[in-house]
Design goal:
The protein has 576 residues and is mostly beta strands. Helix content is 14%, strand content 49%. The longest helix is centred in the first third of the chain and has 17 residues. It is elongated. This is Bacterial surface antigen (D15) domain-containing protein.
Length: 576
């Protein structure tokens, strides 16, 4: 083939001479010009050699009239007969998933050899040897057997030195050491270095102006990070507009959700949040949270939460928790927490109690729980992800105490002794809670994603769970198409399918379906329900902030979707 002129452009039918029927079919009834045919023959030779036919060649290529004839010589399949490796490197080869004894006798597959080389280099680069090399030396052939020395050159061992931070005093180095899980003195790990950009992009208060770089000096690696601050503190609000629930009331009702968040003002990655919600006219909720991720450069931090919920004139709930965080890589952490919950009745319907002679479905209750929580997250961009996942699993156990109400104990009715009304129930019992929140983002093409979400919570208890202990859901945050937190249950689950078209870094258009269930086994009138909702929305980044709209309708208790009862939520997020 090397002496063949390929300037001619006539077309030829190829007639190969080979004992391989698959190769013969390659050119059946196929007409090619000489240049294309020669390039195709070279490709065939490369494919055969990669498949261990090291002697493969094309012989006797001739062009006559409209035909091209040639002989394909495959030769014998070569196999590894003997590979010699310094015993010091057997462990490295094993970490890459290979052993000499399993390679010997294997076909001399060039693709396999390349994959093995890549795996070995990856193991070395992730264990302190960024300049490692691997090759075959002193190789020879004997008939169809291949012998060689497998030579691994680790190069010098490299450890991490300090970080060079370019920019103003934006964040403490100790925070970055813990957050990135790369500290001075650590063995160089190429896999962790490659994750730096994604991890820093998921911090709301920092932004990389250039890709991270590494400078090697002798046996040290210095990480260079060029950072700038971003507007991470936020003020946002959501207004919900929904049709009135009664014919004699207002035509529409308005709900509100206001968030205020401050981050990294102490340069330690700390976070302070306040959230206030007006779920309906006399139902409000206040949440306050503070998180400090790393104490004294250690991978331990803390967070504290306070929640206040007032449910019209029915009950007032207080919730306080304190947790100790053990930070893993990036936004992953484990938490041990102590939680105190208290629910007190505001008004007691004594008329109903006197009429039925029974305790009401809501009682004064307090619980003290210890629990564990794990957060696992790997998103390509936390604030508008295209791929990745976020999973939060939380479990707690503790003692529940029912507090007898003097207003009930003091009731009087002929034939009923309310002073002993609480004697039929256990005032102190143990209770367990399990919570799961998960989201998975599956990329579709380059600008779309499918969000698959599952959220579920359950109370495990031998004694009755009262209505003011139920989980509340429904509305813009979970199960869209319903009034805010108007669905409740001791056990519920909500699944979400949401298609998003990503139109910019912080903007998308979506359509979604939320499907849920709830169970209240102590409610004889309504134990089981499967509500669902569907709708569409968008989130649009502007110069002033991010503006979003969601429109949804829902169905509950087996009824069809109520298109006359559309729930609309409009929100604005401003960063400063």
């Amino acid at each position: 083939m090397s002496n063949l002129a390929i300037g001619q452009k006539s077309s030829y039918y190829a007639f190969p001479k080979t004992d391989d029927p698959d190769l013969a079919k390659r050119w059946k009834d196929k007409k090619m010009d000489s240049t294309a045919l020669i390039l195709d023959l070279k490709k065939v030779v490369s494919e055969l050699q990669a498949a261990a036919f090291l002697e493969a060649s094309i012989d006797s290529l001739q062009f006559r009239d409209s035909t091209a004839t040639f002989r394909i010589h495959r030769g014998e399949v070569y196999k590894f007969a003997q590979l010699n490796l310094n015993p010091l490197y057997n462990e490295i080869l094993a970490k890459a998933g290979y052993q000499i004894k399993t390679i010997e006798g294997k076909q001399m597959d060039v693709e396999f050899l390349g994959e093995m080389f890549d795996e070995v280099i990856t193991v070395l680069e992730n264990n302190g040897y960024p300049f490692a090399a691997i090759s075959l030396k002193n190789y020879s052939t004997d008939e169809n057997k291949f012998n060689a020395d497998l030579h691994i050159d680790r190069g010098r061992l490299v450890t991490m030195d300090t970080f060079n931070l370019y920019g103003l005093d934006l964040i403490s180095k100790s925070y970055l050491y813990n957050y990135l899980q790369i500290k001075p003195g650590d063995i160089y790990n190429a896999a962790e270095i490659l994750k730096i950009k994604t991890r820093l992009n998921n911090l709301p208060f920092l932004n990389l102006t250039e890709d991270p770089t590494i400078k090697f000096i002798d046996n040290s690696a210095i990480l260079n990070l060029k950072l700038e601050s971003t507007n991470s503190s936020r003020f946002d609000f959501i207004i919900g507009i929904q049709p009135g629930s009664t014919t004699d009331g207002p035509r529409y009702s308005i709900t509100g959700d206001v968030n205020f968040e401050i981050q990294n003002k102490l340069k330690q990655g700390e976070q302070f949040k306040i959230n206030f919600e007006r779920l309906k006219q006399e139902t409000q909720k206040l949440e306050v949270n503070f998180q400090y991720p790393y104490l004294l450069s250690f991978p331990f931090g803390f967070d504290t939460e306070f929640n206040l919920f007032k449910n019209e004139n029915k009950n007032r709930d207080l919730n306080f928790s304190f947790g100790v965080l053990y930070q893993l890589k990036a936004n992953n952490f484990l938490k041990a927490f102590y939680n105190i919950q208290s629910s007190r009745l505001i008004e007691i319907d004594t008329t109903s109690i006197l009429s039925t002679g029974k305790l009401p479905s809501r009682l004064d209750v307090s619980t003290n729980n210890f629990g564990l929580q794990s957060n696992w997250q790997d998103l390509d961009y936390q604030f508008n992800p295209r791929k990745g996942y976020k999973i939060i699993l939380r479990g707690s156990a503790g003692q529940k105490t029912i507090i007898p109400s003097n207003a009930i104990l003091g009731l009087e009715k002929e034939g009923v002794d309310f002073s002993s009304a609480y004697d039929t129930i256990d005032l102190e019992t143990y209770q367990f809670k399990l919570n799961l929140t998960s989201s998975f983002f599956l990329p579709i093409g380059k600008r779309s994603t499918l969000k698959v979400g599952v959220t579920s919570e359950k109370i495990f208890a031998k004694s009755q769970v009262f209505e003011n202990e139920y989980y509340r859901f429904g509305g813009n945050k979970l199960l869209r198409g319903f009034d805010e937190e108007t669905i409740s249950g001791e056990f519920y689950g909500v699944g979400t399918l949401e298609f998003r078209l990503l139109i910019s870094k912080n903007s998308f258009i979506s359509t979604f379906v939320d499907y849920g269930f709830r169970q209240n086994k102590y409610d004889v009138d309504f134990e089981w329900d499967q509500p669902y909702g569907a709708g569409a929305g968008f989130s649009l980044e502007t110069g002033a902030g991010i503006f979003g709209v969601n429109v949804a309708v829902g169905s509950q208790k087996g009824n069809p979707l109520d298109l006359r009862n559309v729930k609309t939520h409009m929100g604005f997020l401003g960063l400063f």
